[in-house]
Amino acid sequence: MDESARLMTVLRPVRAGNAFEETVERLLQAIKLGVVPPGGKLPPERELAVRLGISRVTLREAIRALSDAGYLDVRRGRYGGAFVTYRPPEPDAGTARQAVNAMGPGELADALTFRLAVESGAAQVLAASELDAAKRELLLRRLDELNAAGLDDYRRLDTAFHLSIAELTGSGLLAAACADARSRVSDLLNAIPMLQVNLDHAAVQHRAIVDAILAGDPEAAGRAVAEHLEGTAALLRGFLA
Amino acid sequence: MDESARLMTVLRPVRAGNAFEETVERLLQAIKLGVVPPGGKLPPERELAVRLGISRVTLREAIRALSDAGYLDVRRGRYGGAFVTYRPPEPDAGTARQAVNAMGPGELADALTFRLAVESGAAQVLAASELDAAKRELLLRRLDELNAAGLDDYRRLDTAFHLSIAELTGSGLLAAACADARSRVSDLLNAIPMLQVNLDHAAVQHRAIVDAILAGDPEAAGRAVAEHLEGTAALLRGFLA
DNA sequence: GCCGATTGGGCTAGTCTCAGACCATTGAGG
DNA sequence: CCTCAATGGTCTGAGACTAGCCCAATCGGC
After folding, report:
1. What residues have CB less than 8 Å from A73, skipping those under 6 apart?
2. pTM for the complete prediction?
3. Contacts of A26 in chain B (CB under 8 A)
């Protein structure tokens, strides 16, 4: 934690892997966060390759890998494309242990801390900013959609709600950081059973977050998000123990 | 800001450039943030290449470019290495305009928002955590060092103080995000003249941040950081207008 | 039933990047 | 003064990645 800690931070790896691996990771993020919903279609390869800044060859390798792994169904011809077949697994303690073993306990703590910081920071920033009618409406709509969700759609719409907060700040960097943070723990969150008590509790907290943001109270917004995320983190820790 | 916003966020470029460009950027970050201070030496090429996860050839190209650009002085032989010759430029409005034109106003707002969110989030998290004696001491030492700094060292130690907050959370991801956020605006901050009034004001705010963290008051810590950063952001905006 | 637009599938030549080995230079210490 | 360890400088062959082009399949609409 001395001077050398900063060296570790700044001189960390430039690349997290080769282009293929990073692409697989990114597509998996889009799928698991529900950015492309089950049954939905990825953009055409040519367009997607440009967006991701990689060649079509590499993109196709990644798509092929995800297709082989059962995440995607690729169809040729007009109105074809890569369709998402992935469905979040049923909550299960075994899956959770598997997921936490894949990353290690230190990495998990890192990810949870990161998520807590960026999401509460985002809410704080958003509450401090001027929100026009359209943005207020969007936030409320996302909340309504989440509250109306069935169990199948809950995780996806929960993610959509949380990410909307970061997106509404107008900072692409912040939105990307929140999406990244969320995807790092999504496998674990998916493993937690969705009990009605927890959902009810979450709904109250979501409401408190939106209220604080719309009221323009940054501290209340930050606190509300922190409490909410601490709740799920505690649930997770308890579930793993 | 609708559904497609999330597609933009998640399906953003996988690579910010080729390995050479990203390496130059990273080394520049280490230099400009003062992680390797003026006169200091970068780690040996072989070690640095491993840390950055790139080949020595690519690393050497990057070092060569920075050497040509006057940031580094490379010396051969035992006790040789790449020494930092860069000195932060004198504060100057022309430099500032140049820097802001290099990134565009939208990108600047993005970076400032990102910095605000991650740094206040980090302070909030740190204040909420248990701090042992060593960590408290480190935080206070950084503050003392900053207060004792001359004008030459002020920016560097200011950065060191702020980054320490993120590092102390124990989250490498969060520390990296804060370092990234800071490096995005460092050129601009360097362009702001350091007036004694501003330094005095900053010292009071730094003290408030540390007090809130040590008192274990997340909301006060988040607020203190937000006020502090908003202050410098406002200074920046006024300076550019 | 054919046409054309859209989309995935595949190939090639060229560039970037890497791992590893070997060479050249420097300066502290014997 | 010589030696030797640490460090930058250079080369090479192999693999990864890219841009661009053309082929193949599919389906709506004429």
Report:
1. A67, A82, A83, A84, A85
2. 0.95
3. 10-11, 14
Q: Which DSSP state fits A192? A: S
CB-closest option in B10, B22, B109 to A179: B10
CA B152 to C1' D4, whole Å: 40
Q: Considering only CB atoms, which chain B residues are within 8 Å of A43? A: 7, 11
Give the CA distances from residue A236 to residues A56, A98, B231, in Å, rounded to whole numbers and listed in that order.
39, 14, 38
CA–CA gap between residue A209 and residue A223 (Å, rounded): 9
Long-range CB pairs of A151-157, under 8 A, 24+ apart, other chains included? A151/A194, A154/A194, A154/A199, A155/A34, A155/A88, A155/A186, A155/A189, A155/A190, A156/A33, A156/A34, A156/A37, A157/A34
Q: For every one of its 241 residues, what pLDDT tens digit does chain B have, with 9 covering 90 and above?
A: 566 778 999 999 999 999 999 999 999 999 999 999 999 999 999 999 999 999 999 999 999 999 999 999 999 999 999 999 999 988 887 888 888 888 888 999 999 999 999 999 999 999 999 999 999 999 999 999 999 999 999 999 999 999 999 999 999 999 999 999 999 999 999 999 999 999 999 999 999 999 999 999 999 999 999 999 999 999 988 888 7
